[in-house]
Amino acid sequence: MASPRRNIPKIDYGIILTLMLMMIISLIVIYSAQTTGQYGTNFVLQQVVWYTLGGIAAWVIMQFDSDQLRKMSWYLYGIGLLLLCILFLSPDDLPLTKRTNGAQSWFFIPGAGAVQPSEFMKLFTILVLARLTTDHHVKFTHKTLQTDFWLLIKLGLVTAVPIAFIMMQPDLGTSLVFLAIFLGMVLVSGITWKLLVPIFGGISFIAAAVLLIAIKMPEYLKFLGVKQYQFKRIYSWLDPFTYQSNEGFQLVKSLLAIGSGMTGGKGFGNREVYMPESHSDFIFSTLGEEFGFIGGSIVISLFFLLIYQITRVGLDTKNPFYSYICTGVISMIAFHVFQNIGMTIGLLPITGIPLPFISYGGSSLLSNMMAIGVIMSIRYHYKKYMFSSSE
């Protein structure tokens, strides 16, 4: 017999409040960072504009229900691949697709600024992976080792195509985000551990072996096309102070900034350590120096809260497609946070991944807000799932 579930509002005000707190923190830290940064741009004003556009985009996406998102998923994925393909085929000396910081990852649109297609491709890939998994389980109600392997192949191919284009830009950090999304969604896809354990165990072993060779015998990796500057990135991560005049400069400055902030920080605007890109990729270093361990802990707690809120939404819904989307968004945000903060404290190599909702970045912020719009859509259309056939 059907029984009513708890009364759940259509708007998740908890997520909205969390995002508002992140926006306030973002604007405060960016304002401080831009006063001593290497650019003369008013990043605070631009961040407000991107937050506004992101809020509008989230509201629009919230109006689409599950069926509409499913129908749109492959079209959005195709558009994203088309944009990545155009970037790959375009000369890197064109004003529209010029190479910046060693990567050809952006479209430079007059009046709109730089747009990074790979940021939006993350969400498009999540939607397609969620649809593939849902459709697979509808088609194959009786699970076998063969059907699970076929699902793994489909999810892998959908993820590998954008990764291939992004690696050619080259952009290793963003490629790793796609890999994190893939792994997160595979773990909840229902694929048997008889497949996952040997496959991912083998991948982990190969990755560890490559890292060990890179550290102990780097000359053997030259046959695989690994460049000298990529070796230096690994060395500067393992021993940043030896390479602090070049590749290790940012990491050394980040460690000094965060370490000097100690428990309570030096106070707003009282930064002493010069940090390149302090408003974007290394915004956590700025936060750590000015607001110390307490400020950093508050930001990390907000991310834990946001992930908990998205997890709760995913568990509440009775729509498998929505649940898989929540998993993908959680995987994306969690990896961004772990990688960004990890690289600022020397735990992980520097990859140029922004801190979600905090770092300055138009494409990153807009795509993350769009992802939140999809999560808000789940709650907004929750009325279809407020009754369960069994309790």
TrEMBL record:
Pfam families: FTSW_RODA_SPOVE. It is a multi-pass membrane protein. PROSITE patterns: FTSW_RODA_SPOVE. Keywords: Cell shape, Membrane, Transmembrane, Transmembrane helix. It is found in: Membrane. The chain crosses the membrane at residues 12-31, 43-62, 74-91, 106-129, 149-166, 172-188, 195-215, 291-309, 321-338, 358-378. This is FtsW/RodA/SpoVE family cell cycle protein.
